[in-house]
Amino acid sequence: MELRTSDRGITFNVRVQPKASRNEIVGLYGAALKIRLKAPPVEGAANRMCLKFLAKILKVPKTRLEIVSGAASRNKTVLYRCSGGEQRQEFERLKKLMQPYLSPR
Fold first, then answer.
1. Phi/psi zone of residue 19: left (φ > 0), alpha (ψ -120 to 50 degrees), beta?
2. What tens digit of pLDDT does each residue of 28-84 get?
3. CATH number of 55's domain
4. Dihedral of the CA atoms 83, 50, 71, 66 (nearest 10)?
């Protein structure tokens, strides 16, 4: 999985599998973080649950997360909004938080 910085914050790709038995991160799908969600892909329910779940895992307010592309797709790009001053620190923190999910199980 690749974290990228931009003038708006940090972006990363996710692959969502809706209608799962529970919410969980299952590892990688190509270069994206694969997430299973209980919500169905109807009326934005899976997108809302995706952001809520990621906010919990990343320990950030969900208002700082936004799906910037792929809202109608399983493949999404998520933006974590943070200012330039905090970007470097947050980049390292996110890498550490996501590392257990990226290791082989």
1. left
2. 998 899 999 999 999 999 999 999 999 999 999 999 999 999 999 999 999 999 987
3. 3.30.1200.10
4. -10
